[in-house]
Design a protein that fits this description.
alpha+beta; Adenine-n6-DNA-methyltransferase TaqI, Chain A, domain 2; 3 domains; 23 strands
Length: 382
């Protein structure tokens, strides 16, 4: 029998009393901060820390609840803080409830379910105050908090390691893809064929059919390569679109930011795929590896060059013609393969959602949510 089970059997064997949220804490409105001087007190809005000032609204542990916007994103704070009017703070009655227990339980409650608005998600004090809240003995609360803290600490450690590994990956990538006159430099247009895509609105997507790569998915869904596509189109629609064969690279031409323009995806699927407008297909010659080309599009040299050709402000675009003028370093085939092998190992570790650290972090988060919901479900005292 676990320590928690023992505590429950001893202290609340018949169940737990449920109160309303207003019985365990007081919800307070945030205020403007602009009249204060700079300092080291964090100012929270619904999106997190906004700035720092010299004044605090509360110097005790509190759970911050967004009033508008990201209403499912709660914050637990122990140090002095200030909040603006888009986020509530709470004065918790610590004689009957542990602040961290409140935080974990409100996470379980999924406050987005209590949204009161049709547009921007919103919460009101009236709705929040009526939320049913379990009140087990403090010793039970403490043990639950201890268990859940251990889960979150592990996730935090993994996230910290992932950040460090990403920095390491970026260092090696920039070092390996920095060349001088010791290698030949050629324009992309001289290293393969460039084919500009056409059509393919999202309304063309079907449940099955011909594999389709939409330009927007290259910077929101895919990594550096894929054997399967997220989307499909009908055979009839596919006939009108540009074809992507195994070994081809699909490059984005358009985005709302420069970072995502020129992002490349190597297609390794056996079945011929298609792509649409705002994307260009690069069909590499036998002088360059497709995966090496994809990694080179992440290099400082490529980024600096694409900045010169980018047009637009709200929507940024680089035409296929301008893309063809960007020069890339062409080391020997053996050196290209060596670079790909090194970067692939790092890439898998820091970006792969099936094998790398992101996969482990996601698994730990799911494990935490499972145990959180299980531990915070109580038999109701009758």
């Amino acid at each position: 029998m676990s320590k928690l089970e023992q505590l429950i059997n001893e202290l609340c064997p018949d169940g737990v009393e449920y109160k309303t949220l207003s019985d365990v804490l007081k919800i307070k409105n945030g205020k403007d901060y602009k009249q204060f001087k700079e300092g080291n007190i964090p100012v929270y809005g619904s999106g997190g820390i906004m700035t720092y000032i010299d004044t605090f609204v509360l110097d005790k542990p509190s759970v911050l609840i967004p009033r508008k916007g990201s209403i499912d994103k709660l914050y637990y704070v122990e140090d002095p803080f200030w909040t603006v009017d888009t986020i509530f703070y709470t004065e918790i009655y610590t004689d009957i409830v542990i602040p961290k227990f409140v935080f974990y339980y409100l996470q379980k409650e999924h406050l987005e379910q209590h949204n009161t608005a049709g547009g921007v998600p919103s919460l009101t004090q009236g709705v929040l105050n009526k939320i049913s809240f379990p009140l087990p003995p403090l010793a039970v609360q403490e043990e639950i908090v201890r268990i859940l803290d251990s889960f979150t600490e592990l996730t935090t450690e993994l996230t910290t390691e992932l950040t460090m590994r990403k920095q390491q990956y970026e260092y090696y990538r920039d070092s390996l893809l920095t060349f001088g006159d010791e290698v030949e430099w050629k324009q992309i247009g001289n290293m393969g064929e460039l084919v500009r895509g056409n059509g393919l609105p999202k309304t063309d997507f079907t449940e099955s059919g011909t594999p389709a790569i939409h330009y927007g998915q290259i910077y929101t869904y895919y990594g550096t390569s894929t054997v399967k596509t997220k989307s499909f189109v009908s055979r009839e629609t596919a006939q009108k679109l540009k074809k992507v064969n195994c070994g081809d690279v699909v490059i984005t031409n358009t985005s709302e930011n420069l970072k995502d323009v020129g992002k490349a995806l190597l297609y390794l699927g056996e079945e011929q795929a298609v792509t649409g407008g705002h994307a260009t297909i690069f069909k590499p010659s036998n002088q360059i590896l497709g995966k090496y080309f994809v990694y080179f599009t992440q290099s400082l040299s490529f980024i600096n060059q694409k900045r010169k050709y980018a047009k637009g402000t709200k929507v940024i675009d680089i035409s296929a013609n301008d893309m063809s003028k960007i020069i890339i370093a062409i080391p020997s085939f053996e050196e290209q393969q060596r670079i790909v092998d090194i970067l692939y190992r790092f890439d898998t570790l820091v970006n792969d959602i099936k094998e790398g650290l992101p996969a482990e972090i996601e698994a730990r988060k799911q494990q935490y949510e499972y145990y959180r919901d299980k531990l915070l479900t109580f038999k109701k005292l009758t």
